[in-house]
Task: structure prediction
Amino acid sequence: MRLPPYIIHDITPQAERPWNLDQVAAPAFWPQSKGGGAVVAVIDTGLDVGHPEFAGRVFKPRNFTTIDTELVADLVGHGTHVAGTIAGASCGIAPEARIMPLKVFPDDPNDKNTGLYINNAYLHILDYNKTAPAADKVVAVNCSFGGEMYDPYMAYLIRRLTDTGVTVVVSAGNAGDGDPETYEVWSYPAFIFECLTVGAVNQDGTVAKYSNSFDGIDIGAPGTAIYSAWPGGGYKSISGTSMATPHVTGAMALIYAAWRRREGAWPTEEQAVKVLLKHIRKVKLDSRLVGEGLLDLTSEAKRWPLHRVQLGAYYTKANCDAMAAELKNKGLDTYKVKY
Result:
């Protein structure tokens, strides 16, 4: 298991909001929710826990690669960049979500146990959620990595996570050639059914040529030249499906938090994903590259029924018609049933 190859671009600090936040219309969702303290686990290279983008919102860090389990210093930068896109104060989709950094990529290049560490991170989330207070449960996991070998135990753990209400968001991989007819499936766990798999697009909405293509991709999001946090309190611009994935993870944090605010409880994973799929912009791009379409958080922002509320009473037909008309004038869907 490894990080997919990615490109680091030369950048200058940005005074304005990064373009990718507007491309997915994150600000349109913020009046409903900015993440509301929802906890998102980032299984990656660690985190710059002192970076101002995450001030006060780093939650229960854990290092699976050393005996110093609480030290998650990010010597690579990948994990900090991903976390910034999810929940950075100025560069994140869900700027009020909390980040649980789970370091699984070892600093020692001779350590070949990354797959074991990833599975231990999944186990940790499962065990933690069993006893955690409801407000502190992990609701989504960002997995911007991939490997060529199928791991049945990892597949089992991912299935357990989704069964217990956690969305697992995975990058499609960066071995693409721009041709949807040629499948690049060797980026496990991207092709696992239970995962929410993300392909990458460019700033102009075209498919990023590096993004893998196969029929298991669920959604597309910006992945090219994404500006986000970097260790040392800085910022960098990076390209890859690793950078597309946290847009969707951040969107899930928004959705979970909005649902809990309205319903008083977390949604199931299936319910949360159904809401996500209402926030997709249909495009004329092959579904093997971007799945259902591109992430667009405006799609259902103003009309987002979580449950159908059914009102009933004994009426004459005339009174029933009058009530239906009144509700329709208020913008509510109605139907009449004769018993």
About this structure: The CA atoms of residues 256 and 267 lie 7 Å apart.
